[in-house]
Amino acid sequence: MDENLQHRLRARTVKYLQLFALFIAMAIICIPGLWVVLNSFRPTVEIMAKPPVWIPQNLSLDHYRAMFGGVGEGGVPVMRYFTNSLIISVTSTIIAILVGMAGGYAFARYRFRGKAAIFIGLMLTRAVPGVSLSLPLFIVMAKTGLIDTHIGLILVYVALNVPFTIWLIDGFFRQIPAELAEAAEIDGCTRWQAFWKVEFPVARAGVASAGIFAFLTSWNEYALASQLTRSTFSKTMPVGLRDFTSEFTINWGGMCALAVLMIIPALILTFLVQKHLIAGLTFGGVKG
Amino acid sequence: MTRFRLPAWFALLLPAIIVLAAVVLIPLVLSLYSSFTSYRLTRPETLYNWIGTFNYEKAAKSAHFWSAFGRTVLLLTIALNLEMLLGLGLALLVNQVTYGQRALRTIMMFPMMFSPLLVGFQFKFIFNDNVGLVNNALQSIGFSNVAIPWLVDGQLAFFSILVAEMWSSTSVFAILILAGLFAVPRDPIEAAKVDGCTPWQSFRHITLPYIMPFIYIALAIRSLDVARAYDIVQIMTNGGPARRTELLWTLIGRTGYVDAKMGYANAMGYISIFLAIGFTIFFFRKLNAARAELGMGG
Fold it and tell me: Which of B89, B179, B273 is closest, CB to CB, to A132?
C-alpha cells in the first residue's frame, strides 16, 4: 500500500515536471515572435521607454497606417516590395517544382550510370554558401544585364531550390510502386498520361511540401537579394526591411509592423499545408 | 528507331542541370579564376591581372581569416549539436502529450517561418543593452541593475548569436525527430517492457536506433543551409565588436563589397565552400549508413 502510493506520487511528479518543461519550451519558442507582433501595435516611445512599460498602455494601428499610406513609412514603398517578393517567390517556386518533378522522376524511375554521383553533385550545389556565390554571381549578372530584374532573381531562386525539391520529390516517387504506372500504360495510357493521371495525384503531398520549402526559402532569402537588386523595381521584402532599419534605426515599431507583414504570407501558407510538411520531410527524406 | 534520341532520364534532368550550371557552376568557375587575380570591383581591368596563388597565401597567413574560420567551425559545431539535443528533448516531450498535440506541433513550427534576417533583427532588439527585453526583464526582477552589454562584449555577443541561431533552427530538428518517433513500431518497446527493460534501456536500444536516420536527415538539411547564419550574424553584430564575432561569411562579404577586393574574397570563399561541402558529405554518409542499418538503403 505504502509502496503503491510512493510509486504513484513519483509518476505524478515526473508528469508535472514534463508539463512544466514543455510549457517553458513553448514559451521560449513563442515569446520572441509574439513580442514583435505586440510591438507593432505600440508607439515607438513606449517601446523605448525607460523604465520599461510592461503592460501596453495604448495599442493602435498607427504603424500599419503609416506603412500603407502615401509612399510608405520611412520612404520605403512597402507594397511595391511586397508585390516584388510575391511575384519572384511564386514564379520561382512554380518553376522549381516543375524542374524538380522532372529531375525527381528521373532519379526515382530510371537506372543510369553515375546516378549517385550526379545526385550528390546536384545536392552539393546547395551547400555553396550564399555569400561566396553572391560575389561571382554579381559579376555574371552585371555582365548579362540581369541585375535588378525579376528574371535574374527568379533564376537564382530556382537554382537555389531545385536540389532540395529533387531530393524530396524523388523520395515520394520512390514510394509509389512502379507497377501502378505500368498498369496504366498497359491499359493504353502513354507514359505522359500515366504520370499525370496516376503517379502525380499520389505524390501530390510531396510536391506540396517541396513547394512550401521552396516558397519559404525564396520569400525569406536576403544575402543574394541584397546584392542582385538595386532599385524599388526589384527589391524584395527582406531587402526592404534592411533598408528601413538603416535609414530609421530608432523606429522599432514601424520595423515590427513591416516584419509582421512579412510573416503573414509564410504563416498562412505553412498552416494550410502543415500536414504535408511533416510527411514531405520524413518520407521524402528518409525513405528516398 | 534509327533516329538519335536523348535518353529519357537525361532529358528529364536537363532543365535542372542547365539552371544549376548557369547560376552556380559558371559563377563558381569565374570565382575560381578571379581568386587567382587581384580583381577589385572598382577597377575592372584588374580582372586580367594574374597573380597566381597570392590570395590563397595571403588568406593562409592572415590571422583574421583563421580566427574567423575557427569561430565558424566552433559556432556550427556547438549550434548543430545543441539544436539536435534540444530538438530531441522537445520532440520527446511533445510525443508524451496526448491532448492538444496538434496545437503544440503547430506552435513548434513558428520559428521556421521567420526569415533569418528577421531573426537577426528580433534578437538584436531583444538583446539590446539599453531597451532590450532581456535586460529589461533582468532589471525588473532585480537580478541585475547594470545594463549587460550582450552585443558589445565579444563572448556575450557570440552567446547571443548562438541563442538566435538555435531559436530559429531547433524546431526543424524537433519536427523531424517527432516524425521519426511516430514511425517507431510499438511492439519491440512493449516486448522490452515485459522483459524488464528500464525506460532508459528501451529508449537507448530501441527508440534511438529507429530515429537515428531522422536525426541525420535533419543534420544534412541543416548543413545544406548553414550559411543561413550569415543573415543573423550580419544583422546582429556584423562581425563586430572589433571582429570578435567575425565569421567566414561576414569576413568574405565585407572584403568583397566594402573593401572591393573581389579576388581575395573569392579565394576565401573557395575555402569556405569546401568547409560546407565537407559538413554535408559527412552527414550524407552517416545518413546512408543509418538507412542501411534499418534496411531502407538504396
Answer: B273
